[in-house]
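hey team, just a heads up i'm posting the complex here instead of the shared drive bc the drive is being weird again. everything in one block, sequence lines first with there labels, then the predicted structure for the whole assembly after. its four chains so it's a bit long, scroll down
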Amino acid sequence: MSGNACVNGGCVLSNKPNISDAEWQVMHVIWERQPVTAQAIIAALDEQVDWSGATIKTMLHRLVKKKVLRYQREGNRYLYRARVERSESLRQESQSFLDRVFGGEAAPLLAHFVQSGDLTEAEIETLRKLLEQAGGDS
Amino acid sequence: MSGNACVNGGCVLSNKPNISDAEWQVMHVIWERQPVTAQAIIAALDEQVDWSGATIKTMLHRLVKKKVLRYQREGNRYLYRARVERSESLRQESQSFLDRVFGGEAAPLLAHFVQSGDLTEAEIETLRKLLEQAGGDS
DNA sequence: TAAATACATTTACGTCTGTAAACGATTGAT
DNA sequence: ATCAATCGTTTACAGACGTAAATGTATTTA
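-- predicted structure starts here --
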């Protein structure tokens, strides 16, 4: 995914923390249940993916290094918490996706998803209202 | 981005070709102007990014290897063409993004972009119509 | 207190990616 | 025909990622 700038045959992280594919799965669990132990995270993910506990611990470690997570010792184990807000991460990742794949054009992206047909009637209604608000503002 | 499954300490490509961040930039140019030479691609990208020609050639090479591009010799140089349709790539990448970041929920994603406020009045109108169609279908 | 258990930390390894220089082949010009 | 310019191919390298085993450390149990 995005977020790294490279020079001189090497790559460095950009200012914004970038959460990898697999790491997003971990973050979803953490945002939902924080503060949470590695155990609980592993248990929660066990229903969704097929990773060994060691793998998830590696991710936790990397997320801490990236300053996306922080932890608090609690006896033997850690309690993990997010250091970045879910909404902010969504925003950044969405913007990066929009730029990368849709060249920054929000309308085609929206059209794409609206036409994908995954929306329920209620969702459509909600969006209609949101669109009205968006229209009124300008 | 997504698309690789790993086993045994190694990673292998999944069935779907995955286009990296930087590669998307190249692909946008190609979809717009194909068939197109490396020269033209490099020239077009020169206005947008700060990569050396060599870098872009590497990407072209990798995209060919990934079977995202094909080429046709034309004397000394190649004419590059996409082997995958833009719309199909958008679809796949969008789906993967939706799953990864929004847990597969299209409505929150759409709400997010509608509220981002980047839409013009005309775009809002267009989307309103699309929503009506989407609603009528179900 | 010693052994077993449960955690976290370190090490590992192959692939992908960003970035580009070096090298080889082909073509155009003199 | 040879030299220079052009274009594609190979090689390079460091960081990120997916995946996980091995190792070290602290806690619980016998």
